[in-house]
Amino acid sequence: MYPRNRSITITRFPSWGAAARLHELHITSSAATVLLIMTNYDVVVVGGGPGGYVCALRAAQLGLETALVEAKKLGGVCLNWGCVPTKALYSASKTLIKAKHAESMGISFPEPVFDLGRMREWKAGVVSTLVGGIESLLEKNGVKTFHAVGTLQQERSVVLSSGETLHAQQVVLALGSSPVEIPAFPFSNPAVWDSSEALELREIPDRLLVIGGGVIGLELATIYRRFGSAVTVAELLPEILSTVDIDRRTVSTLKRAMTAQGINVITGKAAQSMEETDQGIVVQLSDASEIVVDRVLVAVGRRPNSRSMNLTDLGISTDERGFVQVDDAWQTSQPGVYAIGDLVPGPMLAHKASAEGTLLAETLAGHARTLDFETIPQAVFTDPEIASVGISERLAKERNIDVLVGRFPFAALGKALGMGEPDGFFQVVAQREDHRLLGIQIIGTEASDLISEAAIALQGKLALEAIADAVHPHPTLPEGLKEAAENALGRAIHTINRPQ
Question: Which listed residue (23, 101, 367, 474) is catalytic?
Answer without folding.
Answer: 474
